[in-house]
Amino acid sequence: MRKCLGRSQLATDDRQLDGAGSSEDRRYMPRGLRNQIDTELQSILKAWFPRTIDPEYGGFLSDFDYRWRPRGLQHKMLEYQARQTIAAARGASHYKDLRNTALHGFCYLKERMWDTNSGGWFRLLDRSGNPLEGGTKHGHGSSYAISACVCCYELTAELACLELAKAAFAWLDQHAHDSVHGGYFVFYRRDGSPVLSQDQVGFHGKLRDAIGTPIGCKDANTTSDLLKAFSDLYRVWPDALLKERLQELLRIVRDRLVVAPGLMHMYTHPDWTPLPDFVRYGQVLRSANHLVAAAKTPDDAVDPLTLSVAKSMVDMMVRVAWDPVIGGFHLAGSGFGPVDLENTTVFVRTKSWWPQADGMRALLEMAHLHPAEATSYVALFERLWQYIKNYIRDPRYGGWFAAGLDTNPEARKQPKASIWKDCSHEVEALLDCLSMLE
Predict the structure, then answer these.
(1) 200-254 pLDDT, tens per residue?
(2) Which range has the worst mean pLDDT, 55-59, 227-231, 235-239, 341-345?
(3) What would the 3-class secondary structure string for the chain be?
(4) How far, in Å, are 152, 192, 227, 278, 381 from residue 208 at the CA level?
(5) Which of 150, 190, 259, 317 could form a disulfide with 321 if both were Cys (CB 3.0 to 4.6 A apart)?
């Protein structure tokens, strides 16, 4: 497990991932929630680890049914492998027995998912480690893999973790950075050249890549996750070029992708001209969290413009995505909620598990940053937490359902894990909420 690692001293940095609010803020924080959230965090980590570790081929198994029985092909997708590594590494800060699990995940990212010939991370492997999809690569999974390396470095002080994150940034910047319009192209062939048309990869008429982005376009999902990854990396490696790219991405997300009254364009042309599309409400909440994290100074302050934009995003999602009756955030729809077209309502009522996790973080963060409105944000947070306990968490088999049972009762018997359902959203949200509730 440890042959891929060397020893080093952890670089020190006075910047903090999370900061507690002032005593003024804390008076708004509900009592008794911290123990509930800590208990839920332990339950989730116990449900996922060590059962998802693949002892035969390395990395993590990705296919389990609703009773946690292994089922399916167990493909190794970069996002899943990286996110499980993040969950283990961050969870190890509270539960030290996860340290080796995090290192197990890192070694798989380094030894199997990293392309030793052409550089960059493969997007998808079969269980035994053979590249699928022609060995193509993607910025979305790469962003999570960078963050995973940083998390492992902060946990272990292993220099190999930091060096792999730096190599991934250099590879992305060489191959994917758009020197004309800024930001990054999102989908690449094995040699790193951006895929800008369907005929470049032989998709035979498919209009979208594996994460749903129209081929040749840029997207808010990848761009905001790269913002988060670069912010994580800069925390431990304050490189001048990295800082420049981090600031560039922050301006793109804040000033180009987000528009009044707090909505977000999902897809754009390479020059950042937006394309019409549904709004993914969870993506707006997640991107608001990323903006705040990327803009925070060492003393936990956020510049007024970024703070205003992030607040508008959270407030708009409370207006259009929040269920005022039962609680929870719906998945997607128009920028202004349900739309009636020819006697049909266009709205995705599903309350997927991950927007609820990102919503928890966003609401508590707003309570800290806007003390004058803290009571309202904390009240919403408490309602969301109650919704999660009632409709998302599985009290029988452990873990979270893929969606709330109020909108999707069939989720009770849907897979607990798949290549697109790992445990990082809920683990990171619960950890960040614990930090803020302190």
Answers:
(1) 776 556 789 999 999 999 999 999 999 999 999 999 999 999 999 999 999 999 9
(2) 341-345
(3) CCCCCCCCCCCCCCCCCCCCCCHHHHCCCCCCHHHHHHHHHHHHHHHHCCCCECCCCCCECCCECCCCCECCCCCEEHHHHHHHHHHHHHHCCCCHHHHHHHHHHHHHHHHHHECCCCCCECCEECCCCCECHHHCEEHHHHHHHHHHHHHHHHHHCCHHHHHHHHHHHHHHHHHCECCCCCCECCEECCCCCECCCHHHCCCCCCCECCCCCECCCEEHHHHHHHHHHHHHHHHHCCCHHHHHHHHHHHHHHHHHHEECCCEECCEECCCCCEECCCEEHHHHHHHHHHHHHHHCCCCCCCCHHHHHHHHHHHHHHHHHCECCCCCCECCEEECCECEEECCEEECECCCEHHHHHHHHHHHHHHHHHCHHHHHHHHHHHHHHHHHHHHHHECCCCCCECCECCCCCHHHHHCCCEECCECCHHHHHHHHHHHHHHC
(4) 33, 18, 22, 15, 35
(5) 317
Q: How far is CA 325 from CA 147, 350, 387, in A?
A: 37, 15, 11
- The values of phi and psi at residue 3, to 5°, are -65, -20
- Strands 279-280 vs 258-259: parallel, antiparallel or unpaired: unpaired
Comparing CA positions, the residue from 261, 263, 241, 243 lying closest to residue 251 is 243
Taking the C-alpha atoms of residue 315 and residue 221, their distance in angstroms, rounded to an integer, is 20
Instruction: Give backbone dihedrals phi and psi of 341, rounded to 5 degrees, phi first.
Output: -125, 115
The pTM score is 0.93
User: 323-328 long-range CB contacts below 8 Å, 24 or more apart?
Assistant: 323/351, 326/387, 326/391, 326/406, 327/383, 327/384, 327/386, 327/387, 328/356, 328/384, 328/387, 328/388, 328/391, 328/392, 328/404, 328/406
CATH class of 23-437: mainly alpha
Helix axes 240-251, 281-295, angle to 10 degrees: 140
Q: What is the pLDDT of residues 118-139, one digit of tens each?
A: 999 999 999 999 999 999 999 9
pLDDT at res. 299: 85
